Amino acid sequence: MKNTIKQLRKAAGLRQEDLANALGVTRQTIIAIENEKYAPSLALAIKLAKLLGRPIEEIFTLEE
């Protein structure tokens, strides 16, 4: 699953650690999501979208 987490996080002035703490996950989880090695649960995706102020569809896209 493709995502724009890294770009949105940087635009918001957040470090990976800041984002992880705000979401209640580890920094390694954020790294894995940003590197498209881990697809977050729906609940985590919703939290990410709310925190970054973007709709989920703008953050995550399915690969064809």
What is the gist of this entry?
This protein is mainly alpha-helical. Helix content is 59%, strand content 6%.
Give an account of the 3D structure.
This protein has a two-stranded antiparallel ribbon. It has helices at 5-11, 16-23, 27-34, 42-52, 56-59, and strands at residues 2-3, 60-61. The longest helix is centred in the C-terminal third of the chain and has 11 residues, at 42-52. It is built from five helices and two strands; from the N terminus they run βαααααβ. 59% of the residues lie in helices and 6% in strands. The mean pLDDT is 96. The radius of gyration is 10 Å and the shape is globular. The protein has 64 residues and is mainly alpha-helical.
Topology:
Blueprint: E1 2-3, H1 5-11, H2 16-23, H3 27-34, H4 42-52, H5 56-59, E2 60-61
Antiparallel strand pairs: 1-2
Helix pairs in contact: 2-3
Keywords:
64 residues; globular
Helix and strand composition category: mainly alpha
Radius of gyration: 10 Å
**In one word, what is the shape?**
globular
Largest sheet at a glance?
2 strands, antiparallel
Strand percentage: 5-15%
Q: Number of helical runs?
A: 5
For the termini, the CA-CA separation is 9 Å
Mean pLDDT: 96
Strand count: 2
